[in-house]
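Running co-folding for flavin mononucleotide.
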Amino acid sequence: MVDLMGLDRAASIDDLRHLAKRRIPRFAFDLVDGGAESERNLRRNSEAFEEVELTPRYMVDVSKIDTRATIFGQTFDQPFGMAPIGMLNAFWPEADLTLARLCKRENIPYVASSAASTTLERLAEAADGNGWFQLYVSGDAAVTEGLIARAEAAGYPMMMVTADVPAAGKRDRDIRNQLSVPFRITPEVLVQLLANPTWTLASLQHGKPNIANYADLLKAATSYADVQKTLITPGFTWDHLMRLRDRWQGPLVVKGILHPDDAVRCAEIGCDGIVVSNHGGRQVAFGPPTITALPPIAAAVGGRMKVIIDSGIRRGADLMRAKALGADFAFVGRALAYGVGAGGAKGADRAMEILKLELLRALGQLGAPSFGAVGPSDLAGASSPA
Ligand SMILES: Cc1cc2nc3c(=O)[nH]c(=O)nc-3n(C[C@H](O)[C@H](O)[C@H](O)COP(=O)(O)O)c2cc1C
């Protein structure tokens, strides 16, 4: 078949990002692509991964490479999953379901965001056993409890509570694009819609995306501040987390940890894991990249719980870098989202293929017959263990 979308020629996740940029109106592209303020954190996330050097070892039999990883009792085919992304259907129609199905097919975890544009029930069905649920703690305890009860009823085994949004991130691109609630079609938006007919027609066909889990509650929202108040609370504290620990029967993971002391406290409360994350550089511009924050956290936790990482992963080799520095597992957000933006389900498949093949090749080049075999001794400059 003729590759009209250019997917076969996309050599990297960055190439898919460029393809997505070409066919999505700027306001919708920026919504996903953008970061906080100067976007320093967004840029540094990926740059800092690039700076981690591993030393290849040769004459190791790598004719068979095992990329599987086991976490919370489930073995996945790859050591990464899809991070929770809110309102992703604004980027490309049906993006949520496309990615949930992909994760099932590829046997990797899919994290359904509280703020997804598809209900958590439909996403649980699509991810079919591979779904985890991400919770935002609302200022209204009844809203939070309602979501937890629904997640339980939908059969999610895992809950990931996001800690790193005490206030909404200030994303300058969204301000410049004049994104508003309810969404308004400004003359600039109209020009962008006309210039991107594939996106516009597909979006018209699927209807305006909303934050599906809160659709009724948000009907009356007239500002972004109203939406924020329903979704998250600046009053989320360790007391809340302890209550969530008591409330949720299954494994509980805290997402958005950057300080070793916070990580240790999560372990002491009885959490099963943390995600070292800066929300993909969307919250602050002044924080550390996650791959830099990871080593002291992994050392402080000392194997008491699972240490997961996200933010800035764009290459298969980044997964090895994270493992060498102490991560058990990883999530990607934009890497797979760019795929959907570049070419719907086919684009998502291409993004997955790129990450998988890059990881496989990188493990072979490193001399690691399995992902599990990668460790601190692979870091450049590390002396080999006695
Ligand atoms: C558009 C967008 C929306 C997001 N929405 C959520 C969300 O609803 N809940 C959450 O915990 N994290 C959310 N995140 C953060 C991701 O889960 C993840 O931490 C981040 O995308 C990882 O960085 P990466 O995109 O560089 O891989 C969002 C990220 C993006 C890009």
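Result summary
The pocket of flavin mononucleotide is lined by residues 32, 45, 83-86, 113, 115, 134, 162, 255, 277, 279-280, 282, 310-313, 332-335 (CB under 6 Å).
The beta strands are 69-71, 74-76, 80-82, 110-112, 131-135, 159-162, 252-257, 273-276, 306-309, 329-332.
Job closed.
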